[in-house]
Structures are given as C-alpha cells and as structure tokens.
Amino acid sequence: MRVQIDRFEDNGWAVLLPYPDGRRGFDVPRELLPEEVSAGDVFDVRFEYDRDE
Q: Which residue from 30, 33, 39, 50 puts its CA 20 to 30 A from 11's CA?
C-alpha cells in the first residue's frame, strides 16, 4: 500500500491518504514518521498480522 502525507495537525498527528487515489485518509502519530518528512512525501506501508497478540 502506498500513502502520501497530506498534512500535519497541530495536535501531533499526520494525515495520510492512499496514493494515488487519495480518497479516505487516516491519522497516525507524527512521532511514527521520520523527522525529515514533509507534506506530499509518499511511502510504501505494509501491515502485518501478529498472531501472538
């Protein structure tokens, strides 16, 4: 899955949008992203199921 940073909120959250369609976004804590990123940057994201949790 590819996502693009849409914006950073004042409350410490980043809004990410699926890339390139940009439909429904979701928020992640800003601290989970590298410090040097900015709005418009694109990332590959992978979700893994943790069967032990």
A: 50
Q: Three-state DSSP class for 37?
A: coil
CB 22 within 8 A of CB 4: yes
Cα–chain center distance at 40: 11
Look at residues 40, 48, 33 and name the one whose alpha carbon lies nearest to residue 6: 40
β-bridge partners, 15: 7, 27
Q: Residue 53 — very low, low, confident or very high, per pLDDT cuts 50/70/90? A: confident
Position 23 pLDDT exceeds 90: no
